[in-house]
Design goal:
It is a single chain. It contains 4 helices and 2 strands. The protein is mainly alpha-helical. The chain has a domain at 34-77. Strands 1-2 form a two-stranded antiparallel sheet. The mean pLDDT is 81.
Length: 86
């Protein structure tokens, strides 16, 4: 027995697989850039008593891994070999 694929008007029968159209998603916003002063301010927030990297990143809408990277840079840590290859 054939059935209609929701919203498409196409019909498929028993044992038939409906083909799907690929959806193209474009990025709506550009990559943000942060000044050195902004980075310092955000890293400073993470070292305040009772504060967490996750809370600061959520509050400012940035990725936690980015904030962790800035913290490592501020401590003067050398990037790992893995990060250097990427």
């Amino acid at each position: 027995m054939a059935r209609e694929v929701a919203g498409t008007g196409a019909r498929i029968g028993a044992g038939t697989v409906a083909s799907e159209r690929p959806e193209i998603v474009t990025r709506g916003e550009r990559r943000r850039s942060f000044s050195a002063e902004e980075k310092v301010r955000l890293v400073a927030e993470t070292v305040q008593p009772g504060e967490t990297v996750t809370a600061v990143s959520r509050r400012h809408g940035i990725c936690t891994s980015l904030l962790h990277r800035w913290r490592r840079t501020a401590r003067g840590e050398v990037p790992s070999r893995r990060a250097a290859r990427a």
